Every structure is written in structure tokens, then in C-alpha cells.
């Protein structure tokens, strides 16, 4: 199908990373670069390292790497997995599978408990899988927000099961951190990893691993076969006063994160969770009003990415293309075997109510272009009603 040029000119992005940046975050990155040992940068570095644990809701040192989210995942595997020993992965989508690929790459005897894409990881089945290994399992890896399907797993329950077997849980919260509550210390989760380009409202390039003392001790028992990603080395630098780094920190991204954290804490973490919940509720209502089925379980916690199953009678792969090329609204389609079957509207990070209205409007217009019978304004109208009923609409701090 020939693509008409973008008829509205303006571009909007509702993708789960990179996500849009607040203007103040963009602006600070245009300032002159700082030498990483200069007092001005060290002050910023210290301030960011002091405040990151508040986002993870932990007293751990949050270890920072110049990498994408996968780099933080790899650090967890590189520090916890022992070649030849079992590692358990509980997955329900593309990013969960990545844990298994990483464990294989580090020579683990990977036990991969796979759930259908669109289902949640079942804690009872994880329990059975751990019982069935027959040898002690150091680490279990799973995903909080499975961005490929919109599913948000019950990390609290999965952690309880993991702990009951004496293992540590490594959680990929790359897209969920800051959008859906994950109080790491309260729940006793040993390892939570994340990246800068989602709810933290920064560009890609910083990866974080919040590691408990227990997980640090396990890593120390298993030295070797890692260098840059060694947790001990990074922790040693960060814990100095003032903090230091064995490697050049991504100075520009730290400046951006310093400003993004100002904005996040000005809004408040709880308020940010409530905002994501409301945006997701409105997106879900809009999708239903468009006559589409929602993909994944009904879940009030699935507040990172809202996913619609596309009607069989249209060419689903055209939906995100039309939305982007004709209407200037970038969302994501399905990955792997879900390509052409689902549309994913992401709303983690710097998003407000009108972003959802815009995304639903563009979705509706693209669907109508492809012959799906949707009443004009139905999806956007349903979202507006959710916002109207909510009364006060939480908004991100734009800065
Ligand atoms: N895990 C999840 C849940 C993600 O959404 C992503 C990125 O979209 C990743 C891991 C990988 O992160 P990155 O692409 O930053 O390496």
C-alpha cells in the first residue's frame, strides 16, 4: 500500500523506549561536556547515586553502567551464574527469553520455564520447576514488565517462591521501574535491573543494577570471567566519598538523569505510579471502545504498555506503519510471532493524558483506513471519559 505523507506534520512517540524527553532533560545535555573528575561532575554523580536508590526503593548501592538495559541484565548473569550450574529463567515474552539466552551464553545449565506470550509467569509453576531441578539453584531470572506483551508479573509472589528455595531473584524492571510499584527492600528482592530510556525519562545509555548484600556476596564467591560488568569493581568506586568510577561515566547522561530525577521526585514516585495507572486505564477503555480485544490478562497493574489484538480481517502490520507515516504517531507493533497481530501503545515515562488521546485517535484513523469499522472518536472519547471521571488528572512535571 503506497504511504501518504504524514498529513499532520507533528511527530508523537508512544514507544517503550526510547521515550520522549522533558525539555529540561534535553536542554542540560546541550551544556558543555564535563571532565568526570572535575568537582562539578563529581557533585552531579554523587547526587544521582544518592537518589537512585529512592527509585528502586532500596538501601542498596545502585550500580551504574554505560550500557543499555541488556547490559545490566548481562551484569546479573555475569555475576551470579556459574558455568555448568543450573540457572532458572521464568519467561513470558521476548525479554524474558533474553535471560535464557544470557544464561546459555555464560555456560549455565539453563532451566527455562516458558509461558505463552500474553500470559503471566505462574508462581506455582516456578515452585514446581525449582523443586524439579534437584540441585541448589543460585539464581532465578524473570521480568517485571514484559514489554513485548504488556504483561506485568507478580514479582512479590515470584520472589517469595524463589526465596523459599534459597535462590536469589534477578528482576528485569527495564520498562517497569518508575511506572509500576516494585518496593525492592520491602519485598526482599535481591537484584533489580533497569535502563535510563523508559520511565526515567532519559536517553538510552545508562544501565542500573540494584544488588542486595546477599547477591553481592554470591558474586564475590564466583569471581572471574567478567571485568567491566563486575559488580564488586563498580560498587567499590561508587562507595567512595566522593564517589569514583573505575571507568569514564557517561557524563552527559548523568547530567540528564540528575534533571530527570528532579522532575520525578517533584512529581513524587507514588504520583507517577498513579499517573501510569490512569493512562493505562484510559488506553484500555479506548481500545475496547474501538471494538478491539485487549491482549493479555485483565490487570490493573499492567500500566506500562497497553496492547490491542488487531482484527484478523485487516493487515495488522500496516497499523503501526500507517500511524507513523500518515499520522505521525509512532507506536510499536508485535515482535516475533506476534508481528502483525498486536499494536502496543506504550506510556512509561514522560506521558500525560493527551498522549493517550492522540495515540487512540491515530489508531482509530489507521484502522478505519484499513477497513475496520470504528465510530470516529470512539476510542479517544472513551479515554476522555476515563480522564473526566478521574477528576484531577495527574501530569508529569514538564520542567
Ligand atoms: N527488558 C525489557 C523489559 C525491555 O523493555 C527492554 C527494552 O525494550 C530490554 C530488556 C532491553 O533493553 P535495552 O534495549 O535497553 O538493552
How would you summarize the topology of this molecule?
Elements: E1 12-13, H1 23-28, H2 39-56, E2 62-66, H3 69-80, E3 86-91, H4 94-105, E4 109-114, H5 123-133, E5 139-143, E6 145-146, E7 151-152, H6 155-164, E8 168-172, H7 184-187, E9 191-195, E10 206-211, H8 213-221, H9 231-238, H10 251-267, H11 269-289, E11 293-294, E12 305-309, H12 318-325, E13 329-330, E14 332-333, E15 342-346, H13 353-369, H14 378-390
The structure holds pyridoxal-5'-phosphate.
Pyridoxal-5'-phosphate binds near residues 17, 172, 174 and 195.
Question: TL;DR of this structure?
Answer:
This protein has 399 residues and is of the alpha/beta class. It has 14 helices and 15 strands. Helices cover 42% and strands 15% of the residues.
Give structural notes.
By secondary structure, the chain is α/β, with parallel strands linked by helices. It has helices at residues 23-28, 39-56, 69-80, 94-105, 123-133, 155-164, 184-187, 213-221, 231-238, 251-267, 269-289, 318-325, 353-369, 378-390, and strands at 12-13, 62-66, 86-91, 109-114, 139-143, 145-146, 151-152, 168-172, 191-195, 206-211, 293-294, 305-309, 329-330, 332-333, 342-346. The radius of gyration is 21 Å and the shape is globular. 42% of the residues lie in helices and 15% in strands. The chain has two domains: 12-20 and 268-390, Alpha-Beta Complex (Aspartate Aminotransferase, domain 1), CATH 3.90.1150.10; 32-265, Aspartate Aminotransferase, domain 2 (3-Layer(aba) Sandwich). Helix 11 packs parallel to helix 13 (353-369). The two termini are 41 Å apart. A seven-stranded mixed sheet has the order 2-10-9-8-5-3-4, sandwiched between helices. Strands 11-12-15-14 form a four-stranded antiparallel sheet, with helices on one face. A two-stranded parallel ribbon has the order 1-13. Helix 7 (184-187) links the parallel strand 8 and strand 9 (191-195). The protein is built from 14 helices and 15 strands. Bound molecules: pyridoxal-5'-phosphate. Pyridoxal-5'-phosphate binds next to helix 3.
